[in-house]
Design a protein that fits this description.
- This protein is α/β, with parallel strands linked by helices and 478 residues long.
- The protein is 31% helix and 25% strand.
- It is built from 13 helices and 26 strands.
- The strands form six sheets. Strands 3-2-4-1-5-6-7 form a seven-stranded parallel sheet, sandwiched between helices.
- Strand 8 and strand 9 form a beta hairpin.
Amino acid sequence: MQKRKGVVLAAPKSGSGKTLIACALIEALKEAGVDVCAFKCGPDYIDPMFHRTILGVPGGNLDTYFTGEAKTKEIFMEETPEDAFAVVEGVMGLYDGLGGILEEGSTYHLAKAISLPVILVIDAHGMGRTILPLIQGLLSYDKAGIIKGVILNRVSKMFYASLKELIETELSIEVLGCFTEQKELHLESRHLGLKLPEEKRDLKEQVCRGADSLKETVSIERILAIGGAGEKDAVSPKVDSHENKVTYQRADIKENDTHESKLRLAIARDEAFCFYYQENLKLLSKRGFELVPFSPLHDKKLPEHISGLLLGGGYPELFAKELSENDSMKTAIREAIRGGLPSLAECGGFLYLHKSLKDMEGRQYSMAGVIDSDADYRGKLVRFGYVELTEKESCFLPEKEEIRGHEFHYFDSTENGTDCVAKKPIGSRRWECVWEGENHWWGFPHLYYPSNPSFVEHFYQQAGLYQQSKLKQKDNLK
């Protein structure tokens, strides 16, 4: 059976310190000369953005709910070179899957699917001997026997020595080290998870300090060994200036070589629009699109010779004033879509297509005006979690097929669309959503294209028809 090297960092619950320790470990491995790639379990955009933008390593998502065991492993194998070491950050508690009660979609389910060992991150702050039944319970539920080590978080070096001996004596699980509490090292929160990298200018410096601390108190060598790597996988340390140069524009899209056969897809990439699954972008690219980044914030017009438009998620509400004032771009997008340009818009991009957007302070700003509806802040999560989407009339998807996605938003629209039906994977809740036509799909759900590649195929065909119509118009003018 084919395998890759790496480890999965998991915890009993959210807030245990997985993200900080994962980032510190990735940086420490980089400094040791290890070829590292990173993944986030679940639908989170922001952690992979940290991995790519701040740490400079390939980062993506792996989700067994989106793509099942076999397809998820296939994605993992494709995105992890044979000589690389993967650091996979878990989500929520180790065994928390769909609805918090099923194994599917959990960190544990993913670890089994991609055949990687699990290292537990345990927040030991304020705990003593009680840590034993906590770890023992996690171990007893591990029917596959894949938990191979423990890192204790927020514990003093002095007390760590006692806890390590106690745990290893009574539970026969290896304690790989500790990460002492350092209040100056933290990743701040916002309503949609962690703050974006560009907002945390000293984040790179923080991660480097975390890596220095981790190297002093955690056995990097044992982590490599548990993950299937040996000394040959580490080379001479790489020079890293630790400069914190952060950008979104063109930050993590590798533009394709330009060929006449490529269809140019304009993709919004800036501070306001930055939430994209890397797997989605790669599927678009693989199908034949040339991804052409542009900024609805800073540019005055759309890129030239495009055959499609993609407006992803992000934080348009934080830049509503600037977006509103860029009349040239709003007009360009509105006229292009009305002129037949195939388009996709989700969450933040969907908000941008509205007539107006009211921010969290109640200030109303004009948006692109493609959709004759308004959007505003509701003060609480409107819809949250995984969704299965089916069309009322087959268009982007084959008849009776679904595409999977995720919602997480505090804003809502006066008209969410009625062309699709969203259903929660657990329970009976369902609702109408999405504005859809032959050449457009606009709505709140963040879609995961690999869950149904037919979606990309249909969009590509529509882009091709649009390009042909433009070429025909050009010929008729000659």
